[in-house]
Amino acid sequence: MSQCNYIFWLKPSVLALCTFSLLTSVNSLAQQNLPKPVTIQVDLTKDKGPLKPIWAWFGYDEPNYTYMKDGKKLLTEISQLSKIPVNVRVHSLLVTGDGTAALKWGSTNAYTEDKKGNPIYSWTIIDKIFDTFIQRGMKPIAQIGFMPEALSTKPQPYRHYWKPGDNYNDIYTGWAYPPKDYAKWGELVYQWVKHSVDRYGKKEVESWYWELWNEPNISYWKGTVEEYIKLYDYTADAVRRALPTAKVGGPEVTGPSWEGSSKFFKPFMEHVVSGKNAVTGKTGAPLDFITFHAKGAPKVVDGHVQMNMGTQLRDIDKGFEIVASYPTLKNLPIIIGESDPEGCAACSEDLSPQNAYRNGTMYSSYTAASFARKYDLADARGVNLAGAVTWAFEFEDQAWFRGFRDLATNGVDKPVLNVFRMFGMMQGNRSEVKNGLAYDYARIRDQSVRAEADINALASKNTKTAAVMVWNYHDDNLPAPDAPISVQVQGLPAQRVLLHHYRVDKQFSNSYEVWKKMGSPKTPTTEQIAELEKAGQLQLLTSPEWMMAKDGKVNVTFDLPRQGVSLLKFSWD
Fold it and tell me: Where are its TM segments located (predicted)?
């Protein structure tokens, strides 16, 4: 038996030897438990085509938040994070009401009728919404819906008063039904597009996307597939009569991999190709872009949130597969009209604990990792992905960090918005990223991220800059050691480059962690709000650093916390 087993009897010299041996064993064990270094190789000479700004698309249920205080502030910030115009999609632009904002509700009173049934058009509130976008250089995705009360085949009940915790089906009221007069509906659409051209000009409106409805394969549409297709024919005809060069599309179904969705999606596509048009009697219908939705599915497992990115990617992949199966349509732009970790932005964390990923860095790392795979899925199916709408905005006059799926709370930006700021710095074409990394798009699509962490990168290059976004993501929101990262970049066209290293994690670019350190105040002071606003901006991990590129190569090493995201931006003269 070793002398060290009788440590309380030992001479000092032997005790020192035993202590050294014990420490050596502990260090050896600790090293065995440390995460292995991850090497990411980026080759800027390997061009993978344009890095389309598919992330520069946002949307939300409540259109009347658009012109409110925090709404205008956030829209300004969103518009500033992109060098190209940001597209914005909102619901309820034709819903009857006085414009009062509420959760899962909005209205514009665009269409009413007099006692004789004659149409009365009012564009005041819609103009207020679209003016807010246009003033910021943003582009509306003009969602044509929902049904005005005077046109609904089942108008009552119409206004709902849903709140978190209520039955979600309570929201589907009179606005979800088909029109009692398709001709009047078509004239409403025609008048709206014509008014838009008169107000904003033909060139501006030509740059918008006009789309019909939202998720008609579920209760957002209380009609049949055939009635939706008929509505589409009347809608597309009206848009084109008002502006022949306008872009019109659909069908905005959700969950392409769901059995019920394919029974809606495919008949719509078949009709566009070879169906009899309800208005013209000719074959087919105009279609300039194709839309569908894809969502993930988080849940609580053993007391922590477990995401399911695979569910979202499978929906995206199935949607791409359906589009690719139509030779005459497969090259049309695809807009994933809502692309999110789950399906209810207004379902707060306090009442829906599976949504507890939203305030912190899990939402931001999920966003980085999932958007990168959307490019790969589109490439694999050979389709034209134009945009993926993040269905998240802000909710006025709600508790601080209540856990809605939003980009800001009470005017303070949340960590996820800083990932979009990172995306905004990525310009030019995609560059190759490789070196035996644990996950590719196919593995996440099929298995999600349930084994080792997904540590990977997205890279881009233009004439004067290159950028590498690196993330450390896992579906399970559990503590883990920081990952040692080595990013090896080759193909830099200059000998001397300036590196800016931005970071989103618990310490950087994170207003939520600062708020918690304050004691989670329900009513922060003016000074605290100023501190939170500062913490909500994108921050540098280190000071900018000049690096010498030997043969066009540099190596950047750093530790990246679980659910953290780094952006390495290189610039040169």
Answer: none
